[in-house]
Design goal:
Length: 225
């Protein structure tokens, strides 16, 4: 479970201050499929980065499984991120010189697994995301949708409790984007992984089981369907 309590975040650039989050309260249960939506600049990326322990907060608290993540030291935080969180990005962020297989297997490098287990887990997850037979292709030989499938496999292969996806379909045409949403939803149901994804696309919002709307750094509505 993720508990976000009165989280505030202000960015300061020179003498300009932007209040990106102005007091956000949100509780997300295990296994949710939740969309953080809202117009450009409303604070979606800021919120995801805070949940992902990528950025620091100014005030408030974030607890993940009752752990106050911002009170962990640097090493504890790194370990926690590695074990608990998976990330999917708008621009896929694959390593161009590695094949699909290598991009996914790479995520397992820091876990203490033997080669056989790495191979089994990597092949199994690539198959699950529909990339069987494409394991040896580099990202530039894959379509955008296929690259995002590799990124989903890479995020899932560690079996994290939570996957954070910032605008995962923004670079895809609507048909491919829909396929990616369906895949994420399937993985959410099959593995019980919590998916938190941001979007400003109505079609993407419609796939969410719960829709949180941000506006100017505050939650405007929170609706479960
Ligand atoms: N690194 C930064 N430095 C300064 N200001 C920032 C920084 N990151 C975000 N902001 C500002 O904080 C506010 C919230 O930004 P954020 O990126 O969280 O919005 P968003 O909802 O993700 O927008 P988009 O839909 O365009 O991705 C915006 O006004 C933005 O300009
Ligand atoms: Mg954003």
């Amino acid at each position: 479970m993720i508990t976000i309590e009165q989280v505030k975040k202000t960015y300061v650039t020179g003498d300009v201050e932007v209040e990106a989050l102005r007091g956000v309260d949100l509780t997300i249960s295990d296994g949710e499929f939740i969309s953080i939506a809202g117009p450009s600049g409303s604070g979606k990326t800021t919120l995801l980065n805070l949940i992902g322990c990528i950025d620091s907060l100014d005030s408030g608290r974030i607890l993940i499984d009752e752990k106050p993540v911002f009170e962990l030291n640097k090493d504890e935080k790194a370990l926690f991120r590695r074990e608990t969180l998976g990330f999917i990005f708008q621009s896929y962020n694959l390593i161009p010189v590695l094949t699909a297989y290598e991009n996914v297997a790479f995520a397992l490098n820091l876990l203490d697994l033997d080669d056989k287990e790495i191979k089994e887990r990597t092949m199994a997850i690539l198959k699950e995301v529909g990339l069987e037979g494409m394991e040896n292709r580099r990202p530039n030989k894959l379509s955008g949708g296929q690259q995002q499938r590799v990124a989903i496999a890479r995020a899932l292969v560690k079996n994290p409790k939570i996957i954070l996806a910032d605008e995962p379909t923004a670079n895809l045409d609507s048909h491919t984007g829909e396929d990616i949403l369906k895949l994420m939803r399937e993985m959410n149901e099959k593995h019980g992984t919590t998916f938190i994804f941001s979007t400003h696309d109505k079609m993407v919002m419609d796939y969410a089981k719960r829709l949180v709307l941000l506006h100017d750094g505050l939650i405007q509505s929170d609706e479960t369907r």
